[in-house]
Write a structure and sequence with these properties.
The longest helix is centred in the middle third of the chain and has 25 residues. The protein has 5 helices and no strands. By secondary structure, the protein is mainly α. The mean pLDDT is 91.
């Protein structure tokens, strides 16, 4: 297993944990208000909050892991790419009822989660174990 530039990877994982944690906590605490503000169903806001909260926990665990394991990072990358695809589906499905802020939120989620997946994936060397 080989990870490239582990100090930088830890910073990216920390950003993933912070962004996901903030989104998760805000969504769980204020899902009713967020639902009305974004024009998205409450269940969807709760789902997004729960999933991003779980991703944040995984990223935080990876930050604390000594040493960071390539296989665990790879699973986070795969999960982030999967959530990016799901988010594209959410944007397409819910865009007619979403407010401008709701559409912007979903687009930002796609860009941020996809960007994190790409950045984290760049730190997995070619000779890392396959999942």
């Amino acid at each position: 297993m080989k990870l490239l530039d582990i100090p930088r990877l830890r910073k990216i994982l920390l950003a993933d944990a912070f962004i996901g944690g903030a989104t998760g906590i805000a969504g769980l605490a204020l899902y009713g208000w967020w639902s009305r503000f974004l024009g998205l169903p409450e269940r969807l806001v709760l789902l997004i909050a729960a999933v991003t909260g779980l991703y944040a926990l995984l990223a935080a665990c990876l930050v604390l892991m000594k040493p960071v394991r390539a296989r665990a990072v790879r699973w986070l990358v795969i999960a982030n790419w999967a959530w990016t695809v799901v988010s594209i589906g959410m944007l397409l499905y819910y865009s007619s009822g979403a407010t401008l802020f709701g559409k912007a939120f979903l687009v930002l989620q796609i860009v941020i989660v996809g960007g994190l997946a790409w950045l984290e994936g760049r730190h997995i060397g070619k000779n890392a174990d396959k999942v």
